[in-house]
């Protein structure tokens, strides 16, 4: 995996184009430490690449071109079905100079033009310059594993794997207040918006074409579900059939993700999903398998016991990195530089430490269990929504508070609370039942509570912006006809997964150390198949990922196979109080610094900091606010073109 | 005019849940839950503050919105619970 950057359509002098391209690639060199390549042509296009060599180490340098040099590509990612595609293209007379998956895309593009993306099974972001059509094409994989950003600038179209590349090309680092509001609602901006004003993200499953006539962006794949009721009432024989089909698909998507000319390891969290993947890897490649995990000092977050059990069961060579609150505090500035946006949780930080462990151990590629919770219904939010719907329909049932307490057994504080309080916390409001965002309203409202700290000027510039209304308008036309579980799965899969899990917590934390993550559960064949599984077989009563568990019966230790989902969490606000708190926290939270940043209310932040220092424990909303305020300040430090000036610009536009 | 007890409760709520000074004034009968000011951690904070500040012991059955969800409800609860000690 790698990084790419470039531009087209500008009339800059040749030497200037080379300088700009060099700066852009230099800014994302961490993504590809094994080499750099540049192509600047007379037509005005410039493609740059930095390489992490994984397939065809000797011949895979980029950018590369087709037989006659009219089509050039810079590519980040992996095409897992490249061997099959290559055989097909060879049979059709194409001449290959390398054994790389990159070259497969070039020839496929010659055959099919922009529609070539439809044949690709992989995680990819790429740019193709077609000299004959004088056209630039940008494309991104279906699930949003690999990142790609773009901006219109200096009369042309600029792009890069990270926003840094666009800043290096001269785009100003200005905050987009609407994106900040979205982060303080959904944890991520709604694409194509990013936290950088004027810099767009190419959304997952989209491609962009730019030529002399202009720029167009279109979707080439979409996540779709059957109508509610269609295909429900699964018989036992149907369940068995689906179970076997799932097992087969998962084995195949794991198999093609082991294709690499370097050794492939695995993240092993101790949860069901990574245990499934590690088990499948062991079955496919029985020789020495290396696994890696995060261990937490605090027992509230730690899953070492389950990790050890899997390591024993599979006989892997295992290494763990131990993380405490102090490490998180130390890492957070680097986390924000790589994630390139404010975050409300510190959970990305341990994953940056984990990718470092992998790199220090000499590996570049890991498989992980990411995507199973979205595709096969593992998250608590799905159970919570089901119980909330049950409670709404059965207002007199005495089982309601028992059900709610069962939901969060790992949250010690929830057990003693009265039914009325539990119901309120879990978001019973009569008028919610018809809301398409029903499943996610409690989460969005809790997160949105952190906006209480927004400054008066930020509020003014937002002018009553309603992030929930914005999201509702973006939902696909068929959304209302889907089963409630599928609606909730869509919201997770289309938004939080690419917007946060795969990016701020995934790609950016892995690529900070030049490590590539691969995700068998996110093979689009499996995602499409999972969308057709009857909801009752995904979440059976309150048993999450039921069909996945059934499909792996007998192949995993029962304690792992039957383990209830424990969400991946890390110490949040705790990292910023007490004697171990990083020095920057007090500096950034100082009322003068907060006032200078322009985005938050200094008095309110001072009260929050005082409460945190005095009591130590913060509620969910307050903890997200504290981490969000700190990381916004770190973002301003790292990216704002002279932070006070950026804040002034924002105020001026209010 | 707020009495002394209501003012103490309001002060605690503002410093620990409301935070803001420029927000519209929180009415004494406004629901803390509906305003998004209190979550499950907040309830426990509120209970431990009441117990420490007023020397009362709240039974589980008393930890309900009827007693805790507005500044006025908290004041009324405390008025019933410890009428004598709260005059000062």
Defining key terms:
heterodimer, A: 654 residues, alpha+beta, Glutamine Phosphoribosylpyrophosphate, subunit 1, domain 1, Rossmann fold, 3 domains, six-stranded antiparallel sheet, 28 helices, 17 strands, B: 88 residues, mainly alpha, Non-ribosomal Peptide Synthetase Peptidyl Carrier Protein, Chain A, 0% strand
Can you offer a commentary on this structure?
Chain A is an alpha+beta fold. Chain A folds into three domains: about 1-220, Aminohydrolase, N-terminal nucleophile (Ntn) domain (Glutamine Phosphoribosylpyrophosphate, subunit 1, domain 1), CATH 3.60.20; about 235-340 and about 345-375 and about 490-560, Rossmann fold (3-Layer(aba) Sandwich); about 440-470 and about 570-654, no CATH class. Helix content of chain A is about 45%, strand content about 15%. The longest helix of chain A is centred in the middle third of the chain and has 21 residues, at about 235-255. In chain A, about 55% of the residues are buried. Chain B has one domain (about 5-20, about 30-80): Non-ribosomal Peptide Synthetase Peptidyl Carrier Protein, Chain A, CATH 1.10.1200. With about 90 residues, chain B is an all-alpha fold. The longest helix of chain B is centred in the N-terminal third of the chain and has 15 residues, at about 5-20. Helices cover about 50% and strands about 0% of the residues of chain B. Chain B is built from four helices and no strands. In chain B, about 25% of the residues are buried. Chain A: Its EC number is 6.3.5.4. Chain A: Keywords: Amino-acid biosynthesis, Asparagine biosynthesis, ATP-binding, Glutamine amidotransferase, Ligase, Nucleotide-binding.
Give a concise summary.
By secondary structure, chain A is α+β, with helices and mostly antiparallel strands. Chain A contains 28 helices and 17 strands. In chain A, strand 6 (122-130) and strand 7 form a beta hairpin.
């Amino acid at each position: 995996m790698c990084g790419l950057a470039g531009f087209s359509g500008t009339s800059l002098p040749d030497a200037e184009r080379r300088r700009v391209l060099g700066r852009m690639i230099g800014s994302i060199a961490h993504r590809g430490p094994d080499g750099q390549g540049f192509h600047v042509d007379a037509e005005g296009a410039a493609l740059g690449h930095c390489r992490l060599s994984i397939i065809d180490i000797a011949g895979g340098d980029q950018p590369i071109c087709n037989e006659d040099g009219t089509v050039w590509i810079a590519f980040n990612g992996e095409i897992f079905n490249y061997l099959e595609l290559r055989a097909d293209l060879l049979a059709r007379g194409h001449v290959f100079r390398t054994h790389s998956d990159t070259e497969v895309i070039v020839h496929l593009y010659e055959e099919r033009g922009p529609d070539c993306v439809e044949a690709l099974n992989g995680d990819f972001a790429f740019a193709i310059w077609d000299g004959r059509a004088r056209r630039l094409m940008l494309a991104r994989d279906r699930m949003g594993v690999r990142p790609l950003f773009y901006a219109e600038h200096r009369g042309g179209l600029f792009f890069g794997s990270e926003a840094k590349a666009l800043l290096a090309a001269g785009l100003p680092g200005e905050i987009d207040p609407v994106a900040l509001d979205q982060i303080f609602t959904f944890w991520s901006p709604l694409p194509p918006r990013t936290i950088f004003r004027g810099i767009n993200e190419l959304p997952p499953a989209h491609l962009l074409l730019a030529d002399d006539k202009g720029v167009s962006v279109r979707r080439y794949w979409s996540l779709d579900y059957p109508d509610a009721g269609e295909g429900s009432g699964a018989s036992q024989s149907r369940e068995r059939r689906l179970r076997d089909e799932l097992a087969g698909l998962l084995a195949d998507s794991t198999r093609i993700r082991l294709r690499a000319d370097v050794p492939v390891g695995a993240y092993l969290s101790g949860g069901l999903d990574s245990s499934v993947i590690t088990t499948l890897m062991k079955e496919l490649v029985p020789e020495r398998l290396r696994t890696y995990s995060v261990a937490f000092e605090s027992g509230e977050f730690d899953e070492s016991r389950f990790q050890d059990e899997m390591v024993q069961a599979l006989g892997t060579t295992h290494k763990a990195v131990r993380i405490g609150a102090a490490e998180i505090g130390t890492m957070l500035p680097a986390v924000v530089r790589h994630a390139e946006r404010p975050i409300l949780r510190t959970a990305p930080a341990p994953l940056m430490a984990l990718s470092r462990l992998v790199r220090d151990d000499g590996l570049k590629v890991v498989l992980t269990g990411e995507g199973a919770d979205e595709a096969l219904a593992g998250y608590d939010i799905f159970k919570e929504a089901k119980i909330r719907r049950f409670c709404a329909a059965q207002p007199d049932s005495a089982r309601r508070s028992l059900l709610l307490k069962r939901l969060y057994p790992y949250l010690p504080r929830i057990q003693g609370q009265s039914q009325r309080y539990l119901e309120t916390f879990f978001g019973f409001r009569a008028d919610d039942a018809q809301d398409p965002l029903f499943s996610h309203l409690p989460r969005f409202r809790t997160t949105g509570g952190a906006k209480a700290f927004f400054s008066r000027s930020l509020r003014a510039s937002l002018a009553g912006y309603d992030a929930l209304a914005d999201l509702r308008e973006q939902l696909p036309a068929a959304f209302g006809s889907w089963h409630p579980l599928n609606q909730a799965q869509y919201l997770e899969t289309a938004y939080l997964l690419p917007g946060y899990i795969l990016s701020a917590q995934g790609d950016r934390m892995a690529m900070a150390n030049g490590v590539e993550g691969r995700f068998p559960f996110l093979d689009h064949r499996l995602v499409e198949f999972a969308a057709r599984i009857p909801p009752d077989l995904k979440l059976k009563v309150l048993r999450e990922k039921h069909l996945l568990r059934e499909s792996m019966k007998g192949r995993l230790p029962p304690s792992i196979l039957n383990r209830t989902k424990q969400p991946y969490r890390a110490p949040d606000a705790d990292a910023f109080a007490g004697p171990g708190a990083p020095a920057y926290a007090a500096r950034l939270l100082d009322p003068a610094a907060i006032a200078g940043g322009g985005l938050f209310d200094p008095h309110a932040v001072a009260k929050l900091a005082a409460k945190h220092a005095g009591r130590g424990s913060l509620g969910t909303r307050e903890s997200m606010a504290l981490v969000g305020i700190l990381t916004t300040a770190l973002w301003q430090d790292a990216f704002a073109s002279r932070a006070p000036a950026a804040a002034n610009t924002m105020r001026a536009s209010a | 005019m707020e009495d002394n007890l209501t003012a103490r409760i309001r002060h605690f709520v503002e410093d620990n849940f409301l935070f803001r000074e420029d927000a519209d004034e929180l009415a004494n009968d406004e629901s803390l839950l509906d305003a998004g000011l209190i979550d499950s951690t907040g309830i426990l904070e509120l209970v431990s503050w009441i117990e420490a500040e007023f020397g009362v012991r709240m039974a589980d059955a008393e930890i309900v919105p009827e007693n805790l969800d507005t500044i006025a409800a908290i004041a009324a609860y405390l008025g019933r619970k410890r009428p004598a000690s709260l005059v000062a």
